[in-house]
Design goal:
The complex is a heterotrimer. Chain A has helices at 2-29, 34-37, 44-54, 60-72, 86-121, 126-140, 143-157, 173-199, 202-209, 214-251, 257-266, 270-298. Chain A is mostly helical. Chain A folds into two domains: 16-72, no CATH class; 89-298, Orthogonal Bundle (MetI-like fold), CATH 1.10.3720. Chain A is globular and about 85 Å long. In chain B, a hairpin with a 6-residue loop joins β1 and β2 (30-42). Classes of the chains: A mainly alpha, B alpha/beta, C alpha/beta.
């Protein structure tokens, strides 16, 4: 168990290093930020000076080595735009993003599983048809479009919910629901098929022959078995949610890391991009690890080796 | 578990003119899987239902507890303790399943829920049907595991199915089926998935249960060796019909239906290097397109023109011995 | 005397267990097969019996070259197989084919019967397309299927017919030896006889040798003149089927055959129960591996491993106390 945990931790570290390297190269390959910092009529010498100041005149691998050294000592660089430590900027925005992603995660998991079970229990009848149609819609509709539609419906027409910012306690509701939709749809589908599969298993037949009430067979045995594949994709869903949050934050003007990153991208503010991606990767990897470690609680056949 | 005194002529269950129609998922065709089958189960006796795949033997067994797919239609009567199970409510059936009539399935590796302990799964019927809790429940669990020959019951109760061998799991399935002292135990190919030695000892265990606790045992099997070992009476099925039934010795020593005869001679009988085995020509029929007359006629080496013309009825061919063939006669 | 088709001597397969990184001291090994020897003559059927986990499957994998052996030799028609060059190895693999238990899963559902049968020939690449078609037609006839079967798919056939297709495929490269792994266990009783007769007929017509692996002792007795009984990776008894079955010399064979369910309600059963559970092949018992469950075991059995010698019944048995077999 411990050795499994340590090995998973090692693998998580490799993931983080790989992501940081890709982002590091990508931001530099998409354009030189020096030009957005100097005056339009700057001379070659001035440009070279700024570039040297930022360390951009050295080879990539030297730059990366310096960057890694800095990160280890806690220095994530300084934002080119705000002239503040990039780490602080990201950390200030992180709670908002995590709150949004987590709310969407809980919404999609709880409702996804419940609707999936309902569809499986009413297989072929109208609740099943309706839920499957809803899931198909949720999977195919782009989230920015759903977001705009939701703003129009609940914010503008019905005026039930706030549509922008994070000030009101109910502000979270619309962006979280919009973000949850896609992931909920895939959980609905998976739950439905997993429930149908377990309900035709031999042990379910044996349970019926024991005279167990149907509710016990469904909620105790079939559901727990169906949860095994569902838990396996929850980690993936969470990563998707964090990624999807970027767009939702822009649509709903949610002050999270996503919006910060979009701004940073536009401004070539590469220290902020690097710090943001690194911290988001770190949180996703850790949550994934926690989910993987929880398999054993559900399925006794899993041994951590 | 205390031995029970019982009367061997006491009827435990009676199936009268049982017919089952199943919907085939491939093409939605209605399949007459079981067609007018009648039999009686007696306390302490074992009835073997034999036949090849698709003959309706498992469907017959499952219909006794009405554990069939939703699309299945059952007709006839199943008389049990003065009521007709086919007319009983779903709720009433649940009170009977696992309490008075229980089942053992073919593959022990998939018969138990992999995510729950043996103890948990053994406790379920004891709680629901017998209302046992706490120490009494635990004592009964240990007693049951010991009764099926499991040596360290306390440890096994806390273990999961994947930690045990197939032979041991099938014993546990047997313990669950026996937990509420049922009247009838239906075993559907219970030893097919086991090693030969595990098979022999499991059959001995079931036989012992039947004789000691006055259980009426139904043994669904394709294996004539299993029938010879445990059964008192035999029902031979072909294409959804009972083609022959009677006491085991009469079936083996004086089979009256050509299908039973062919079945018995076509198995390797342990003779070393016998050259050729007698075979039954052709394949079992498609149940959705049964031939007119006797269903076995197209494969029967003794078939005559009359066989494919008229449907066969059961004829008395001996004491409690019936065969569905007009050429079968009493000795 | 002619050369045996297959000769196996001292064949062994040990699997290391546990993580290669986190271990203390010596790593343990699973002794799945631990030094077995047997030979199969031209046109002979040799039976290998034993319970799950005795090493039958591993033996088959080694014979097919799917698993490298840890020790021992496999001679095919007198030629060493394991260290052979690629060409010899390819030829060997063509000459030894298998028929598996389940005809439902061993045939690819998306291929037509002719493609299934011709597949080994296509890989082989020596026959032209026209010759391959002829060969498929010939093989279908050999296994008793109509010519029209060629263009149909496996799901259109019954279990017995599928097993015929599997047999036709195994014959396509004109093998010398077929490994029959529970060839009729999944088939219905009335179909079993047909397939067993077909196998016997093919053997006589083509001079094939068979290695038969089965749980069904009646099928084994019907097909094989000689058998070997395996327990925990070793052969404990081998000899003519009739002798091993009717007068076993090894206590394990005796227990095994006592479990046979004769299709006769008047047969006398004296099922010999073995105490305890099968030991793990990771650390097999010292001396005789069967001693932990053997009713005849003595202190000597823990110290000295018995070798295969003429036993009380007449077959070769690995037991120190074979003369006491009748006391079981």
């Amino acid at each position: 168990m411990l050795s499994y945990f340590l090995r998973r931790l090692g693998r998580a570290a490799i993931t983080i290093v790989a992501v940081s390297l890709i982002v590091f190269v990508a931001v530099r390959a998409t354009g030189d930020p020096t030009f957005s910092l100097v005056a339009e009529d700057a001379t070659e010498a001035e440009i070279a000076e700024v570039r040297a100041e930022l360390g951009l005149d050295r080879p990539y691998f030297v730059q990366y080595a310096i960057y890694v050294g800095d990160v280890i000592s806690g220095d994530f660089g300084t934002s080119l735009r705000y002239k503040q430590p990039a780490f602080d900027l990201v950390v200030q925005r992180l709670p908002a993003t995590l709150q949004l992603a987590l709310a969407a995660f809980i919404l999609s998991t709880v409702f996804g599983i419940l609707l999936g079970i309902l569809a499986a229990l009413r297989q072929g009848r109208w609740p099943d048809m309706a839920i499957r149609a809803f899931a198909a819609l949720g999977l195919s509709a782009p989230s920015f479009w759903v977001g705009i539609l939701a703003i129009l419906l609940f914010g503008v027409m019905l005026q039930w919910l706030p549509t922008s910012g994070r000030a009101h306690p109910l502000s979270l509701l619309l962006p979280a629901m919009t973000l949850a939709l896609h992931s909920m749809a895939s959980i609905v589908r998976l739950t439905r098929s997993a429930m149908l599969e377990t309900s035709s298993a031999e042990y379910i037949k044996f349970l019926r022959s024991k005279g167990l009430p149907e509710r016990l067979i469904i909620w105790k045995h079939a559901l727990r078995n169906a949860l095994v594949p569902i838990v396996a994709i929850l980690g993936l869903q969470l990563s998707n949610l964090v990624g999807g949050a970027v767009i939702i934050e822009v649509v709903f003007n949610w002050p999270g890391v996503g919006r910060l990153m979009i701004e940073a991208l536009v401004n070539h503010d590469f220290p902020v991009i690097q710090a943001g991606v690194l911290l988001i990767t770190l949180s996703t990897v850790l949550v994934n690890l926690a989910i993987d470690m929880s398999y054993g609680v559900i399925d006794p056949r899993i041994k951590y080796q | 578990m205390r031995p029970v005194t019982f009367d061997e002529t006491a009827v435990a269950l009676e199936a009268i003119n049982l017919s089952v129609t199943l919907r085939r998922s491939r093409d939605g065709a209605d399949i007459p899987a079981v067609n007018g089958v009648s039999f009686t189960l007696y306390r302490g006796r074992t009835l073997g239902i034999v036949g090849e795949s698709g003959c309706g033997k498992s469907t017959t067994a499952m219909s006794l507890l009405r554990l069939l797919p939703r699309t299945a239609r059952i007709a006839g009567q199943i008389r049990f303790r003065g009521e007709d199970l086919l007319a009983a409510s779903e709720e009433r059936l649940r009170a009977i399943r696992g309490r008075y009539i229980s089942m053992i399935f073919q593959d022990p590796m998939v018969a138990l829920d992999p995510l729950f302990t043996i103890g948990d799964q053994l406790a379920e019927p004891l709680r629901i049907h017998c209302g046992l809790e706490g120490d009494a429940l635990r004592a009964r669990q240990v007693e049951l595991l010991a009764a099926v020959g499991i040596s360290t019951p306390e440890t096994r109760l806390t273990q999961y199915p994947h930690q045990m061998s197939g032979g041991m799991l099938q014993r546990i399935v047997g313990a669950i089926a026996m937990s509420c002292n049922p009247d009838v135990l239906i075993a559907d190919e219970p030893t097919t998935a086991l090693d030969p030695r595990a098979q022999a000892s499991y059959l001995d265990l079931l036989k012992m249960f039947g004789e000691t606790y006055g259980l009426a045992l139904v043994m669904v099997t394709h294996d004539m060796g299993v029938v010879a070992r445990v059964c008192d009476d035999v029902l031979v099925m072909y294409a959804g019909q009972a083609v022959e039934k009677g006491p085991v010795r009469q079936i083996f020593n004086a089979p009256k239906h050509p299908y039973t005869r062919a079945l018995l001679t076509s198995i390797p009988n342990g003779e070393v290097e016998r050259e050729w085995l007698p075979t039954i020509a052709g394949q079992p029929p498609d149940l959705s397109r049964l031939p007119p007359g006797c269903s076995f006629a197209p494969r029967c080496s003794a078939a005559q023109e009359r066989c494919s013309r008229e449907a066969q009825i059961e004829r008395v061919v001996g004491d409690r011995h019936r065969a569905r063939c007009w050429r079968a006669v009493a000795p | 005397m002619t050369l045996p088709v297959l000769e196996v001597s001292g064949l062994a397969k040990h699997y290391p267990v546990g993580s290669p990184w986190f271990h203390r001291g010596e790593r343990s090994v699973v002794r799945a097969v631990d030094g077995i020897s047997f030979s199969i003559a031209e046109g002979e059927t040799f039976g290998l019996i034993g319970e799950s986990g005795c090493g039958k499957t591993t033996t088959v994998k080694m014979l097919l070259g799917l698993e490298p052996s840890t020790a021992g030799r496999i001679l095919f028609q007198g030629e060493e197989v394991q260290n052979a060059d690629a060409a010899t190895l390819r030829q060997y693999r063509a000459q030894i084919q298998t028929v598996f238990q389940d005809p439902y899963s061993s045939l690819s559902p998306r291929m037509r019967v002719e493609e299934i049968i011709a597949e080994p020939l296509i890989t082989d690449g020596r026959l032209s397309a026209a010759d391959r078609r002829d060969r498929v037609a010939e093989l279908l006839e050999v296994v008793g299927l109509p010519k029209e079967a060629a263009t149909r798919f496996p799901h259109e056939f019954s279990g017995g017919q599928r097993q015929r297709i599997a047999i036709a495929r195994s014959l396509s490269q004109r093998p010398r030896l077929l490994i029959l792994d529970e060839p009729v266990s999944a088939l219905d009783v009335s179909i079993r006889a047909q397939v067993l007769n077909l196998l016997r007929d093919l053997q006589q017509r083509l001079g094939l040798s068979y290695l038969l692996i089965s749980h069904d002792f009646d099928v084994v007795a019907h097909m094989c003149r000689r058998i070997a009984v395996m327990y925990l990776g070793r052969i404990v008894e081998t000899g003519p089927t009739k002798i091993v079955r009717d007068r076993p010399s090894h206590p394990y064979s005796k227990a095994l055959f006592s479990a046979v369910l004769a299709p006769d309600p008047d047969a006398v059963h004296r099922h010999i129960r073995l105490p305890g559970v099968p030991p793990s092949p990771i650390d097999p018992p010292s001396g005789c591996r069967f001693r932990t469950r053997c009713p005849l075991a003595q202190p000597l059995c823990a110290e000295v491993e018995p070798q295969l010698l003429a036993g009380a019944g007449g077959a070769l048995a690995a037991c120190h106390f074979t003369e006491r077999i009748d006391s079981m």
